[in-house]
Amino acid sequence: MLEKDPFNLKKRIDFCLTLKGAVETFPFGENFHVMRVGEKMFALIHYKEGQLLVSAKCEPDKAERLREEYKAIIPGYLLNKTHWISVVTTQDQQIDFELEKAILTNSYQLVLSKLSKKKQAEIRSF
Q1: Residue 24 and residue 54: Cα distance in Å, rounded?
Q2: pLDDT score for 1
Q3: CB 10 within 8 A of CB 97
Q4: ∠ CA 73-40-59 to the nearest 5 degrees?
Q5: Regions of the chain with pLDDT less than 50
Q6: What's this model's pTM, rounded to 2 decimal places?
């Protein structure tokens, strides 16, 4: 499935799977890795035209600041552009993986916080 992985998509998926209750699903086909917690998407990871796109939920004000500061961060590709951002990785353009992990963790926490208290407790007890 991940034969060609020039920008290490697997590293991003593996990181997401370290978050409690996170699962990888493929509702849009095998090339679109949808990361979920409690049945809700917190990340969409895929290749598009030689670029790796990692999309994550983000607070609108934080998303705006990140887009202003980093050329590699754009409004959410194929997603609500107010509440999602996409990190675009190419040969010429990358951000620090620690920042990417922070973006993914923030997205996970945003989605987790919107789940019912019962579901949150179930996930946290894993």
Answers
A1: 14
A2: 43
A3: no
A4: 40
A5: 1-2
A6: 0.93
DSSP sequence for 68-97? HH-TTEEEPTTS-TTTEEEEEE-SS----H
CB 60 within 8 A of CB 106: no
43: three-class secondary structure by DSSP: strand
Give the β-pairing of 73-75 and 51-57: unpaired
In the prediction, which pLDDT does 58 show?
A: 98
Q: From CA 94, how far away is CA 70, in angstroms rounded?
A: 9
Distance CA 9, CA 52 (A): 7
d(CA 102, CA 98): 6
Amino acid code (one letter) for 112: L
Task: Specify the pairing of strand 73-75 against strand 22-25.
Answer: unpaired
Distances (CA, A) of 7 to 33, 73, 78, 101, 103: 15, 16, 20, 15, 17
Q: What is the pLDDT of residue 6?
A: 75
In degrees and rounded to multiples of 5, residue 75 shows phi and psi of -55, 150
